[in-house]
Amino acid sequence: MSRSTAYGHTDSLATVPPGLVGSIQPHGLLLVLREPQLRIVQASVSAAHWLNRPLPTLLLASLFDLGGDAAARLGAMLGGLRAGQPQALRCTLGAPGPGGAFEGCVHRVTTDTVVLELEPAETAAQAPGNDAPHAALLAQLSAAVQRFSAAPSVAALAVAAAQAVRRLLGHDRVFVTEFGPDGRGCVIAEDRALRLPPWLGQNRLLDEAWPDPSARSRQVYLHKRVRVLVDAKASPSELLPALPPGSDGGHDLTMGDLRSTSAAHAERLREHGVAASVVAALVREGQLWGLITCHHPEPRRAGQALRAALELLAEVFMTRVVALENYARAQVRAEVRRLEQRLLEATSVEGDWRAALFRNQAALLLPLEASAALLWHEGELLRCGDAPSGPALQRLAQWLQAQPDSPLPWQHPALDLRDEEAVPDRLAPAVPPARLGVLAVRLSRTQPDALVWLRPVQADTGHCLPWTRSDLSLAQAYGTALVDMILQVNAVRLLIAEHQLSQLRTAVAGSQEAAVVTDAAQRSFYPNAAFLALSGRRRDEVGSLEALAALFTQPAMAHRAIGQVRAEHRPWHGELELRRPDGRCVPVAVRAEPVQGSDTPLLGCIFTFEDVSQAHEANTLRHRLEAALTRTTRAAQPTEGHELVGAIIANASLAAMDIADGDNGLAAAPLLAEVEARTARATALLQQIRDIAPPP
Fold first, then answer.
1. Three-class DSSP category at 315
2. pLDDT digits (tens, 9 = 90+) for 490-521
3. pTM of the model
4. What is the spatial order of strands in the sheet that 237-240 belongs to?
5. Exposure of 613 in the CB half-sphere (CA atoms within 13 A)
6. Do strands 435-442 and 410-416 pair parallel, antiparallel, or not at all (unpaired)?
7. Cβ atoms within 10 A of the Cβ of 658, count?
8. Which of 207, 330, 638, 671 has fewest C-beta within 10 Å?
9. d(CA 588, CA 611)
């Protein structure tokens, strides 16, 4: 059966997304207006109640006929309305008196049709927090932003957010959920009253179906960042007629404030003792990073100003998340560089870097909260911590080999490592499954080499503590460093053992890091595939150090660097520009390292190259962001909200410094652009709060 609703045409009721079923929440009203007379062609049943007027008399009447200043205010806005960009509106509608004051928003859905959503303003004022003076609200936001900026970790930031949002909205329970790479949500912070049970700890893991089962519903959060449910027990108010006159499929109200939720979601809320909820999306790089969810056991509505304030806090929260995660990666890179140096020294002294990796077990296990770590490399296994043995290791190795070829880490929340064939039938019920959480990174594209971390499963969930985005980023950083370490060790071996040249060239060629390796006499001169791709040259064009130096825009400086390494046996680090055949110049960071042997002063040289063009772009973006922040600060007038503007600017400046100082590489440019966009959005939301706030 086909059904068309005011929210679009669907082939089956089962495919209708939650809330898009031709109905709205009954605490407000919806009017579909046709220009230029602003005639009402569709209305919610609830409009008759709130306007104290029979529904038949509303349909085809003009907004001008209803009284109040709604028609005049809306008329002044029509020229600036754009599809997908609802605008806030405060107005009066209906008979004069306090009951005729409304707040809400207006959407443009077609070239001649707009949708007006209104909620009684006095209802918002009845809830604690809604009647807070405008200056007090701005001061509260300023304090929250300042606390966000001072948070030293994502965990501390989430706690600060839960507490700030609960003080802002007054709901009994506020919790912050972070979605893992597998789509499952983990509650990372909570602030609650005693009458609601805790979710943090006892129920740390939330199923992917919470708070809404459909993938499209998650997409809605990317467009409508704050969603409000006032009363989970209330019956939705239908729209009449089902289709507006002249419409062939209804209107998309994805951005609507009054969208009713699905019956299944409302039922889940009621089962948990929740009557009202507010959910704010935490979005990073176009993806849903997490949610701030507010629950209350009685019906409750947050006014438009509070919703804008919550969205502002969500934007500032994610600005700080970007900075914290980026700075943490920078700290990891610094530690990994030190580890790499120790491993290289161990290779020179002991001939093997792998034992040195496990010499400090805490440094390998604690950052990932792991109980054990294992390294498969060149057919050998090293391990530390509470690692399994025997058949369990074989099962783990089989699982690793079955994983797809991907540069991203592999993870499993509870991998069963029990060898069922080795357990007699009479003992099987008494032997608990050997289940462990697994996180692994590939170290070679040509060999089954991997670095693996293990976690025990939790008794209450049957899974290990979830592997978060931060865990995966940290694991990938370790893996990248070891891949680089393996490249350097293999390059040394290439110079020492000529008979292993064929095997080692395969390992070096497969590295993602651009490199050129040469012996002292240049009899063996090898640019790997990554360098050839970076320079845009063929192998026969790069056959000597002279040819290598000629590829740069400053060949004299390249000659001096090569001379320093070969003649003085001193490393050289600097930046040069590669000239590609297409005329484009690529800035690269160059590391030139001499390789010395025990019986000869110089075995050869290793040159590695890193494209830093995005780092330059990041620098430009940082200067542009700093200039924009300076202009915003200078333009701010000493009016109400000036302190909040300062807090937002300070938070953005801190994020910019953390990003630029921590990651001046591939990820910095988009992150700085994201900070600039978030700051602009936060400033716009502040202006929205000012615009919709009632006069003092």
1. helix
2. 776 666 655 445 555 566 666 788 989 888 88
3. 0.68
4. 23-24, 237-240, 39-44, 29-34, 113-120, 101-110, 87-92
5. 9
6. antiparallel
7. 21
8. 638
9. 5
